[in-house]
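<goal> How does this chain fold?
<body> The protein record starts here
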Amino acid sequence: VQLQASGGGLVQAGGSLTLSCAASGRALSNYATGWFRQAPGKQRELVATITVYGVTNYSDSVKGRFTISRDNARNTVYLQMNSLRPEDTAVYYCYADSVLGMSYWGQGTQVTVSS
């Protein structure tokens, strides 16, 4: 499966952005998918995940502000980000894990939140 991430940009604190991760080659509904982020000088952080059954999970740092969802018809996973904070600034990466343990990654998309 090939993943194409998009939707990053510059936004003021308190604003919103929606990231998209479009898949090709395979149905994304057969993969556990999610989003990581990495800020300069910080460890990579798992932000949100969605299982093949649609069960979602979030890191404590984004819980209540971010929502991960999957549109099977569009073969796309989204990350709706609300109430953005400067500390959300990072490069965001989507990934997909197959049941066989293979991991696939999209290219990163930069999110910058200004104070």
Remarks:
- The CA atoms of residues 4 and 62 lie 22 Å apart.
- The mean pLDDT is 96.
- DSSP finds no helices and eleven strands in the chain.
